[in-house]
# Entry
Amino acid sequence: MGTAVFNPREDQLAEHTNGSTKNYLNAGFSAKSWLLTIDHKRIAILYLLSITFFFFIGGIFAVLIRLELLTPQGDLMQAETYNKMFTMHGMVMIFFFLIPSIPAVLGNFLIPLMIGAKDLAFPRLNLLSWYIYFIGGLFTLAAIVFGGVDTGWTFYTPHSSTYSNTNVILAAVGVFVSGFSSILTGLNFLVTIHKMRAPGLTWFRLPLFVWAHYATSIIQVLGTPVVAITIVLVGLERLFHIGIFDPKLGGDPLLFQHLFWFYSHPAVYIMILPAMGVISEIVTCFAKKKIFGYSFIAFSSIAIAVLGFLVWGHHMFTSGQSNYASLVFSFLSFLVAIPSAIKVFNWTATLYKGSVSYQAPMLYAIGFIGLFTIGGLTGIFLGTLAVDVHVHDTYFVVAHFHYIMVGGAIMAYLGGMHFWWPKITGRLYPEGWARFSSLVIFVGFHLTFFPQFIVGYLGMPRRYHVYPDEFQILNVLSTAGATILGIGYLIPLIYFLWSLRYGKKSSTNPWNAKGLEWEQAASPPIKQNFEVTPVVLEDAYEYEPKVWLK
Amino acid sequence: MASQPHTLQHHFEDLEQQFESSSLGMWAFLVTEILFFGGLFTGYLVYRTKFPEAFHLGSSLLDVQLGAINTAVLICSSLTMALAVYWAQKGDKNKIVLFLSLTIVLGAAFLGVKAVEYSHKIHHHLLPGDGFTFEGPFADQVRIFLSFYFTMTGMHAFHMVIGIGLMIYLIVRARQGWYSSEYNTPVEMIGLYWHFVDIVWIYLFPLLYLIGRH
Amino acid sequence: MNKGFQLFPDQASTMAGQVDALYFFLIAVSVFFSVLIFFLIYLFAVRYRRRSEEEVPKEIPGLLKLELVWSIIPLLLTMVAFAWGASLYFDGYNPPDNALEIYVVGKQWMWHIQHPTGQREINELHVPMGQPIKLTMTTEDVIHSFYIPAFRMKKDVVPGRYTTMWFEATKPGQYHLFCAEYCGTKHSEMIGKVVVQEPADYQNWLSGGTANESLEVIGEKKFQQFACHTCHVDKPNARGPSLVGVYGKGVRLRDGRSVIVDEAYIRESILDPNAKIAAGYKPVMPTFKGQVSEVGILQITAYIKSLAQDGSN
# Structure
């Protein structure tokens, strides 16, 4: 998307770059200008700070879990404490880190820039979304501080509704409230993408990052309300014993599972689709070549969003649900795997006859493709009925979803943060350290989670505080990996912060990437994003200049 | 940052884009509301299929006349709301305020009738909870029916309270002369919301009050 | 039961080897595609690495045929996995008719196992090898899951209903039994062992130990204790239907529906008698909720089942 009516010269943009003239970062320094901002870029930064905070909270729980699991006995903490650890690790990481991460930080920052708009459709709603998220986070922190929750992030009834005597309601309120942040963000993105594209920017010229967020927003808008009402019902059951999930009062605990997973399965696609959008952007830029199979990647995102709503019962193959229901859910689960495979093949094909360079974003992207392939394939194992009967609720599942969510989503998030860091901050991160830490993360990740596939197939159940001696070696390997992984995550935190002050100032488009955000907006952008509304005359990722016949 | 009436917000190109965005946004929001209530309707359907007699029995405990009155009241309020939108498009300040006020009055009447119904149930120990007593058969399943009754109508009533609050806001702005043929988006959007709340009741009334009527 | 380090679990049931075969197929497919992708990425990354900033790669237009090929081949492979897995799943969750029945009741935080001949075990399950065993299971409180990794088999136990699973053990030995659905504080201590014995040893075990009354005998005692026999007599004009030979038969209900008398129906009738009243009888049976435990219900059910055989009351 280069040949716009207004084609800023590099030096015109450079006037705004380097932070020496006005940009969105120096347009006001007061707390009020940040906390009452309606600038999508500042709101993205607010989200960045808060999700980083919650990532470290969730990470601390992970460290404690892995420390306990170094030995087969429960020698670090009591059983009840351990149960709270994994519950709060899951709850914080899923609802307060993974689900917002890419959409609320990168999506918020980039979508208006990528489509040539001045802001999202509803800027004040965007700020409200952040406050709602924050308030939800406070409730969850309160639940943690006032003694924790021990239901597992999955809140299965009747344990959560009748038997648990921990802060279920507080945690449930936290999750309930944060869900509205997700819904409103999705709504905002949907309307923005529909209504605020720059002239000439047709649907099939959109960056794949935008397509990915469009599909994600559909899921957020349709799925989250169902888990919201489910949480309300659990709360009512707990407070008023209404009997809906408690068999002793005539209720059905499986109804909870159906309602819960109806959202929580699509939720995993909320976590991975934006990541896939990031990867598409990075791969095409660092191969310096238009992505292979653009429309297939775009449609596959929509297919995943739609099919993702039809497979929730694959979490319930051993639950006592009808065998025929399991049959249908298994079948559909295999179908939803295919669009993801299509993406992996198309990304790989993009490298063919490209001009590939290996800065940190690309290392993260390649790491993603490898880890997501493994994670996605192990999903096939879980969708296979008879195999799932054996590995359901074991560490095999834990390994599978961590491959996708950590090896996948977090790698993509970090790749995206590195890729767009110059755009967001006007600074370059130190490339050597970035490449180094990407490798540390990659190695640490495998060492942490691959042994878990093995110990899972051996039969070690999940959420186990103590375990049989023979599982120890694999657990020790896993904890060793987690240590390395933790270090790998700390390094970027340090150098990103360092770069804000001491990092080399960036040019407008250090990667020579295609895209309105790179070619038409300064680094960092001015408050209203563009001097003049861009007009789009070409498809996405036109790296090979076309010769226009006169 | 409150903007003056009929002013283009800074990030939109023109009023048409602004209006279309608001409209799409409100419709998308109403879809989320359908899913939200949908969870409750799903639960209701599951249990009604499991316990048909208990649900018939539970339904007979409800006051059909009051429910019918409420249905009529709410339908009228949708009419007055539609008229408020009409006059907003015409820019007639007094008529906007009039019809919004009528809608609020009708909405409040609905809530008043609901309050009467609720207090009646509570008085007869039919509120699910520890004080619940029901002498007839299928007590547990009747309690489940009543749980759905209270949760669904309660959630609905909560949405009505929000709607009334929004209408009060509209009245304040209308009196300040904010709405005209050029710009009446908030009235129309909140009108959509109110119609949605009405439609939810149209489903709730037969499913809760009218099953098992001979 | 210190097993020592293993990389792969024991195969101790007829199902285990079959599940493992399917597992190995999936591993083969996964390794193939992973290696393929990694290899291609590595190949392209090296072969097409950027040699100068000036180079401009040619755009390669999309190829529908290629997209179809790499969509359809994975689809076919997944369909193989689906069909194979589904077939094993149905086998695994449909017990054969000649299965020996054992009852399991889970509760926080232990497994209560009841053999029909009367043996009771806590956190241990003795079974003979070479014989299909059907477990009929429930829980007194929250959801648990009965998991035997060596048999590749698990099933959740759900409050308010019965779930079943079956297996046929093939190798004598002791194998882990785990609870595999998080159930509260001592979830990871709700473990035990499955002891698979040669048939002769199993018989010895059954007759050894303190003499236990069979389930049916205990059930008959409870039947008397709760005064069931005062209404459920084999006489005309009795207050309640006769239970002789009733197990496994169809029964017409007051509201016109028909049900088969199985464990679930008997359990429901004890706890919620007015839910499905037999045609021709009045709703006078009181509920025994809170008075009889899940174990007690299983015992009474065993007694009622025994009435089918010899018809004696």
Observations:
- Residues 40-519 of chain A form a domain with the Cytochrome C Oxidase; Chain A fold (CATH 1.20.210.10).
- The radius of gyration of chain A is 23 Å.
- Chain A has one domain: 40-519.
- Chain A touches chain C through 96 residues (CB under 8 Å).
